[in-house]
Known about the structure:
Blueprint lengths: L7 E4 L5 H12 L3 E6 L2 H12 L7 E5 L5 H12 L4 E6 L14 H29 L3 E6 L12 H23 L4 E6 L21 H17 L3 H14 L3 E2 L5 H12 L8 H4 L5
Parallel strand pairs: 1-2, 1-4, 2-3, 4-5, 5-6, 6-7
Helix pairs in contact: 1-7, 3-4, 4-5
Amino acid sequence: MQLEPGQIAVVTGAASGIGRALALAFRAAGLQVVATDMNASALQALQTAALADGREAQFDTVVLDVRDAAALEALAAQLETRGGAAVLCNNAGVMVPRTLWEHSDAEWRWLMDVNVNGVMNGLRAFIPRMLARGTPAHVVNTCSMGGFLTSPILGGYSATKFAVRALTESLLYDLQARSANIGVSMLAPGAVNTGIFERRAEAPETEDAMTAGAREMMRQGVAKTGSPPAEIANLVLAAINADRYFVFPHPYLSAITDNAAAIASLQNPTFDWAATWKTDP
Ligand SMILES: NC(=O)c1ccc[n+]([C@@H]2O[C@H](COP(=O)([O-])OP(=O)(O)OC[C@H]3O[C@@H](n4cnc5c(N)ncnc54)[C@H](O)[C@@H]3O)[C@@H](O)[C@H]2O)c1
């Protein structure tokens, strides 16, 4: 579909980082934005910043936890009275660096609930309405390079992103099978300079020294080398307009082909940070 002024774009996890940049980019393109997040004060700050540009388009905020299927369902239903959401960005996500077996049951369920069930809740609420309407629509799911490449201490996060990758690709096939007028993009960033490595207040675990250290190391890493979220958002808008599925902002693609070659030749996996997360041209 082509993005056009007046269309409605819904973004989850819009109060910070990539989601915030997406909300602002849709606004700059003239769309009506519905920015959702569980962080009410950051959403309020975003709305103030967005409205400061003086544009006419509506910019709404909805405090919503993506784990709450009923809240997403209510939002989708309510937006139908305004013509319905043309764009849905299932973007909210959380990350905890921890050795796999040290995730407690509560922490593991939290990761899965936000990163995987949150996406499913968005799809279940919005896709049937997009199908019924039949007008052009587009869904963007935020995956990660962690949905393609695994690494130590990010196994739990990576598992959720492998799931997002699988369900996003399946979504594309399900929609193609129905000749639906709904495009799909899968955003798989590497390092982006956002708040993802901050410890979240609602995280079910107390932090141990190893997780705190890993989080701090990664936080400094993305602050130094991560892409600006606005650049990622621009890639996403271009992908929607071009009906492009893969949005890989980072040049890690050879690591994916190396990984595929290792699988095809039945080599045991080995991990090497430099080789896996290389920043080749
Ligand atoms: N930053 C990176 O390097 C990077 C890399 C790959 C993928 N990603 C993915 O990008 C997406 C956005 O993350 P970000 O980097 O902008 O991080 P961020 O922490 O800056 O933003 C995430 C937003 O999601 C919100 N959120 C968290 N749990 C929520 C919930 N249950 N319901 C509603 N909102 C919730 C947070 O309040 C926050 O505003 C995530 O899915 C993340 O996994 C980020």
